[in-house]
Design a protein that fits this description.
- The protein is an alpha/beta fold and 258 residues long.
- The protein folds into two domains: 1-39, no CATH class; 40-117 and 157-256, Vaccinia Virus protein VP39 (Rossmann fold, 3-Layer(aba) Sandwich).
- Helix content is 34%, strand content 24%.
- It has nine helices and ten strands.
- A seven-stranded mixed beta sheet has the order 3-2-1-7-8-10-9, with helices on both faces. Strands 4-6-5 form a three-stranded mixed beta sheet.
- Helix 5 (92-102) links the parallel strand 2 and strand 3 (108-111).
- The chain is globular.
- 35% of the residues are buried.
């Protein structure tokens, strides 16, 4: 018993205990490395929850508004979603990469267009990091909280509506997830859905707790609207935080209450 406490001597170390301990140690080490490299694997877990929700709600189509280069569609597909995907992206550079990715997937259609309240044209402010691009002016809070996201140019693009996309692509709203990630422009996108806004099987919205784009609706307002339309909150995924740890954005997944 020399050098070994009675507590340790009485506690058998089984192969399973050792394996669990080793696995958790490796997970902690990996998380530490990823944090130092500013990488994030939690999106994969969130995509798995989205895919599980779609299966449970019998949803077999994704309308992906604000697709950028197709990150969301790819993660959803990798999580097991096998339904149709229609992705909309207005900026020419991002759309080229989106098209390249979608070309390998027969069930994935891409549309080069912004989505809003009316059909026509609009101007997109192009961010240095691409995915922060928006129709709306960027607030100083965003610039400070996310260095390297400032606008570097603008591009005039076509604009369509949710109503037109549903008709053009033969989507059945009750069996469709409407995902909107348009950097503060979510309210205008939803306005373009008209009466269909209450009919989707599920909605996913980017929700901001502080004004990151001038004039955008914030979390409380959009959350209440969605609740009033008959949806309930299914899942939340944290977005980015400022240097003080304050959460600035999240993604909210909603399903119809009925």
């Amino acid at each position: 018993m020399s050098g070994v406490s009675a507590e340790r001597a009485d506690t058998p170390v089984t192969d399973q205990t050792f394996g669990n301990r080793t696995r958790e140690t490796l997970k902690l080490s990996l998380r530490r490395v990823l944090r130092r490299a500013d990488l994030d694997l939690t999106r994969g877990a969130y995509a798995n929850r989205v895919a599980a929700t779609l299966r449970a709600c019998d949803i077999d189509a994704l309308l992906d508004v604000g697709a950028n280069v197709g990150q969301y569609a790819v993660m959803t597909r990798q999580a097991g979603f096998a339904g149709r995907m229609v992705s909309c992206e207005p900026l020419s550079g991002a759309f080229a990469e989106l098209s390249r990715r979608a070309a390998r997937d027969a069930g994935w259609t891409v549309v080069r267009s912004a989505v809003g309240r009316h059909v026509g044209e609009t101007t997109i402010n192009m961010a240095a990091n691409s995915f922060s691009s928006s129709v709306l002016p960027m607030a100083q809070t965003h610039v400070v909280s996310a260095p390297g996201s400032g606008y570097v140019g603008a591009e005039t693009v076509p604009m369509t509506t949710i109503q037109d996309l549903v008709v053009e692509h033969g989507l059945e709203p009750a069996r469709t997830l409407l995902k909107i990630d348009t950097q503060g422009y979510e309210g205008e996108v939803l306005a373009g859905a008209g009466d269909l806004v209450t009919e989707f099987g599920a909605l996913q919205l980017e929700l901001s707790f502080v004004e990151l784009y001038v004039g955008q609706p914030l979390f409380d307002e959009l959350y209440q609207r969605v609740r009033d339309w008959g949806y309930r909150l299914q899942s939340i995924e944290p977005g980015f935080s400022d240097a003080n740890g304050r959460l600035m954005q999240c993604d909210g997944l909603f399903v119809r209450s009925s």
